[in-house]
Write a structure and sequence with these properties.
Number of strands: 4
Strand order of the largest sheet: 2-1-3-4
Largest sheet: 4 strands, antiparallel
Number of helices: 10
Shape: flat
Strand content: 5-15%
Structural class: mainly alpha
Radius of gyration: 24 Å
């Protein structure tokens, strides 16, 4: 029994998606981005999870497969760490530029603002492309020319002995492609859009998410020194009193603002992507415009707000791009079955 190389590559990609977007918790992802050696435990832990997801290839191919396990795990940790360091540098550079502009103008910018930077979102995409490239190279150099381990081949042949192997191959291949498509559009795309457009407030070395559409920051009194905080996303910064400044008379407390429906927006984005994927798989690409038009119609009045309009446009374009590209890649993979 020989391995079908298309199925092997599809399984490799699914193993990566499961390790990165299903088995990796948000806490682990945040810990990996910590400065210095504080990130090492989470980084090694994630590399171990990646290795465990690729272990079946070691069992199936023997020595070449175990080399793939080692290469994928080590490269995954290195790529993730490089992305974290570059992201921190991009945020620091954007913060420095924002501070200069804010202090010169004394006002907060409109729209996405000069402190917003697409670099974290771009690095997220490059990070994933780098992981996939490593998988493709490892597959081409090691697995595509390696025979299955005799013990594994015997087990697989015995397990599939009573089934039509061609039919079983088609069913498994389609299942792997559709599972990968689901993870990309439910989990990976949501994270990508969040990194690209959802504001994150960095204070004292910690990064936390801010509301998707925060209220515009008020201009601080001229006599009050301010310290600027950084946000990757919608609004550039928030003016907060400098802790070293003398105390001032507190203002009357403002009425609490309603929390933005971030979870609802995320769910809408997931449903939007799944509808687009379904339409592409069904060959009804022309109907994609109806999905986008319906979403835009529901938000029509809110588009008068420049902040919201820019946030909406950027998030929608990123979401639709991921859904469309991944769906067409899946169609090409499924068409290879003939």
């Amino acid at each position: 029994m020989t391995a079908d190389q298309g199925l092997v590559l599809a399984w490799l990609l699914l193993a990566h998606l499961v390790s990165d977007f299903v088995l990796q918790s948000g806490r682990m992802a945040r810990s990996k981005a910590a400065p210095g050696n504080a990130a090492l435990p989470a980084l090694f832990g994630h590399a171990l999870v990646v290795a465990l997801c690729v272990v079946p290839f070691g069992l199936a191919f023997g020595t070449p497969g175990w080399w793939v396990v080692a290469i994928v795990a080590v490269s995954h940790a290195a790529i993730d760490r490089a992305k974290s360091l570059l992201t921190r540098q991009a945020e620091a550079a954007a913060l420095a530029e924002a501070r200069r502009r804010h202090e010169a103008a004394g006002t907060a910018p409109d729209g996405l603002g000069p402190a917003w930077t697409p670099v974290p979102g771009a690095l997220f995409a490059v990070d994933q492309l780098a992981h996939v490239a490593v998988l493709a190279v490892a597959w081409a150099a090691l697995l595509s020319v390696a025979p299955l381990d005799p013990a594994f081949a015997g087990w697989a042949s015995g397990w599939l002995g009573r089934w039509d192997q061609a039919l079983a191959h088609d069913v498994v291949f389609r299942g792997v492609v559709l599972a990968s498509l689901l993870i990309v559009n439910v989990r990976a795309a949501a994270l990508f859009v969040g990194v690209l457009v959802v504001p994150r407030l960095a204070t004292e070395g910690r990064t936390t998410e801010a509301p998707a559409i925060p209220p515009p920051p008020a201009k601080p009194p001229a006599s009050t020194p301010v310290a600027w905080t950084f946000q990757v996303g919608l609004i550039e910064g928030r003016a907060i009193p400098d802790p070293a400044a003398p105390p001032t008379t507190p203002a009357a407390p403002a009425a609490p603002a309603a929390a933005p429906p971030g979870r609802v927006g995320e769910a809408i984005g997931i449903l939007e992507r799944l509808l687009i994927v379904t339409l592409v798989l069904a060959g009804a690409e022309a109907a994609i415009g109806l999905v986008i038009a319906a979403k835009t119609l529901a938000r029509f009045k809110q588009l008068d707000d420049r902040d919201f309009a820019e946030y909406y446009l950027l998030g929608t374009l990123a979401s639709v791009a991921v859904a469309t590209i991944s769906a067409f890649v899946a169609v090409a993979a499924l068409d290879s079955l003939g």
